[in-house]
């Protein structure tokens, strides 16, 4: 049901009061990030709310839209997102709406953004998207132009207040994360329990260890490394020898916990899966990071255990993801098995499992320093088997855990309050927009030209964009000799050369033409280009031949 309009307002199809340009993507090899050609807009991710960033450029613009357009995302995950346009080429996922100059541009930008969900409602289908017709046929509520300007002015007065409030609240989340890490690290410096040590007579951990046998470890595997890698919190690779609080000691984890890993039963045997044995994978550790895992997304059965290196580990076992997503830490709430992506520790009575979990968490992202690899870090077993913990007396371990969890509960309440405040701000902003676009935010003046009079005037304007959009400029076709283009470009190559992929991006020509030209130059009697193998980077490069 169409809502009743305020006095002086009128409805108009967007296609009757503006032009809609559809995008067309240029050839992929004609797109660059070096600033050559025409700015090229592909989606809302290039707009940060104030300006365009991460710009793309094209030397083959199939569609160039003029200044004064509103960009609307019509395909992909951001359907309906709206942002101000620039003179640019646009891809297929974007359409550019140019409202009549008789309308207030900022009002049209804001009202289309606000009504985007209604426009999308008219375009329901198996594949989310908006067609040109969906946008042009949408009937927007248009106030008198003077009221449009008052609405924009009022929103511009209120928006900074909302933005500042939201921005300040968003700052709390990373600060809370920093506080959480600082809390954990202070706990493993002994600072959290100074008063506890002063008020209690505690048995030094060394005395407790003298009475407890080391747990039996699995046989085989690589030996612990002798390298020392100092941690930032409660864990290091081997002891760095730094001083600790009274009664504490640097203790190898394998002295107080049985260290193991897991395995993945063969996926080619589905009969080994979906049993009654919980099996911890990376997604489980992610979901329960810093907590207890009681249920897992996948399970195996007794046959899966028997036919793999997976082993049923006891409740209370601490798990650390050591590959792919390094650093997830959790405790098993009951008997479970794990994949090989984990290192696990089943603790003796000298080590509280929660104390170990918080010691690992106290390393934060710095735990990657124990691993190797830049793109995909892995902590290998020579380092894991050399893990050494700052171990407090057992009574102090439990007190540290209690105080950490008490503080973390307060932190969680702060986060909950921030999230509630953000939701309230969103609701307040939505109420303001609802009032703005229903004629309730600013005063109305019956003496002003009505919206219908404005629309009638737009219809009669000889230059009104009402029938067909003008033809858009197309890229000029310039015949370029690929061989000469390569030779000319090679004068600017670095001395050590470039990969073929880098050259293909620099030379604005079809991929096959660049490849064929390179083969021709390399195979000539007096080659102008040569291939060299870069041993440092382990790849083949091309460079100009020596004169």
Question: Can you give a write-up of this model?
Answer:
The chain has 547 residues and is an alpha+beta fold. 34% of the residues lie in helices and 18% in strands. It has helices at 105-114, 116-121, 132-136, 145-187, 194-199, 205-211, 253-256, 282-287, 302-306, 353-361, 381-384, 394-436, 451-460, 482-490, 500-506, 511-522, and strands at 10-13, 18-22, 31-32, 38-41, 56-58, 64-65, 70-73, 82-84, 88-90, 94-99, 139-142, 235-237, 249-252, 257-261, 273-280, 291-293, 298-300, 318-321, 329-332, 337-338, 342-347, 387-391, 529-534, 539-544. Strand 18 (318-321) and strand 19 (329-332) form a beta hairpin. Helix 4 (145-187) packs antiparallel against helix 12 (394-436). Residues 464-470 and 474-478 have low confidence and may be disordered.
> In percent, how helical is the residue content?
25-40%
Head-to-tail CA distance between termini: 79 Å
Number of strands: 24
The secondary-structure class comes to alpha+beta
Q: Note the main sheet.
A: 5 strands, mixed
Strand order of the largest sheet: 3-5-4-9-6
The value of Rg in angstroms is 33 Å
Short description:
The chain is of the alpha+beta class and 547 residues long. The chain has helices at residues 105-114, 116-121, 132-136, 145-187, 194-199, 205-211, 253-256, 282-287, 302-306, 353-361, 381-384, 394-436, 451-460, 482-490, 500-506, 511-522, and strands at 10-13, 18-22, 31-32, 38-41, 56-58, 64-65, 70-73, 82-84, 88-90, 94-99, 139-142, 235-237, 249-252, 257-261, 273-280, 291-293, 298-300, 318-321, 329-332, 337-338, 342-347, 387-391, 529-534, 539-544.
């Amino acid at each position: 049901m169409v809502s009743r309009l305020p006095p002086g307002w009128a409805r108009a199809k967007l296609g009757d009061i503006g032009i809609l340009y559809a995008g067309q993507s240029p050839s992929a090899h004609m797109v660059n990030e070096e600033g050559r050609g025409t700015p090229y807009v592909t989606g809302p991710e290039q707009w940060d709310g104030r300006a365009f960033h991460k710009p793309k450029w094209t030397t083959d613009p199939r569609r160039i839209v003029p200044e004064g357009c509103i960009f609307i995302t019509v395909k992909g995950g951001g359907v309906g997102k709206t942002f101000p346009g620039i003179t640019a080429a646009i891809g297929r996922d974007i359409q550019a709406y140019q409202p009549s100059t008789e309308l207030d541009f900022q009002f049209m930008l804001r009202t289309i953004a606000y009504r985007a969900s209604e426009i999308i409602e008219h375009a329901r289908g198996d594949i989310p998207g908006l067609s040109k017709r969906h946008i042009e046929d949408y009937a927007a509520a248009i106030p008198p132009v003077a009221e449009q300007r008052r609405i924009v002015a009022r929103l511009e007065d209120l928006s900074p207040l909302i933005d500042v409030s939201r921005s300040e609240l968003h700052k709390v989340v990373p600060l809370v994360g920093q506080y959480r890490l600082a809390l954990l690290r202070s706990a493993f410096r002994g600072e959290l329990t100074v008063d506890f040590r002063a008020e209690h007579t505690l048995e030094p951990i060394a005395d407790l260890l003298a009475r407890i046998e080391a747990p039996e470890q699995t046989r085989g595997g690589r030996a612990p490394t002798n390298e020392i890698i100092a941690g930032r919190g409660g864990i290091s690779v081997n002891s760095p020898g730094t001083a600790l609080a009274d009664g504490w000691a640097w203790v190898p984890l394998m002295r107080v916990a049985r260290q193991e890993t897991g395995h993945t039963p063969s996926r080619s045997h589905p009969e080994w899966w979906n049993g009654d044995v919980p099996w911890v994978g990376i997604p489980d550790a992610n979901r329960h990071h810093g907590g207890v895992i009681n249920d897992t997304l996948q399970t195996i059965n007794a046959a899966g255990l028997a036919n793999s290196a997976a082993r049923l580990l006891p409740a209370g076992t601490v798990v650390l993801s050591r590959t792919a997503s390094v650093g997830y830490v959790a405790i098993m709430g009951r008997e479970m098995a794990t994949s090989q992506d984990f290192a696990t520790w089943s603790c003796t009575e000298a080590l509280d499992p929660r104390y170990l979990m918080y010691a690992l968490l106290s390393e934060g992202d710095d735990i990657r320093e124990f691993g190797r690899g830049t793109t995909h870090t892995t902590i290998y077993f020579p380092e894991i088997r050399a893990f050494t913990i700052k171990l407090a007396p057992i009574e102090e371990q439990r007190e540290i855990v209690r105080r950490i969890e008490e503080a973390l509960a307060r932190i969680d309440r702060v986060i909950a309050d921030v999230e509630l405040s953000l939701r309230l701000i969103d609701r307040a902003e939505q109420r303001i927009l609802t009032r703005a676009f229903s004629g309730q935010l600013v005063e109305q003046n019956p003496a002003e030209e009505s919206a219908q009079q404005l629309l009638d005037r737009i219809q009669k304007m000889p230059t009104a964009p009402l029938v067909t959009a003008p033809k858009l400029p197309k890229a000029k076709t310039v015949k370029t000799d690929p061989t000469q283009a390569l030779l000319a470009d090679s004068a600017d190559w670095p001395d050590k050369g470039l990969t073929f992929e880098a050259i293909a991006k620099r030379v604005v020509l079809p991929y096959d033409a660049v490849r064929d030209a390179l083969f021709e130059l390399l195979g000539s009697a007096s080659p102008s280009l040569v291939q060299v193998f870069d041993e440092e980077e382990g790849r083949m490069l091309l460079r100009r031949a020596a004169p």
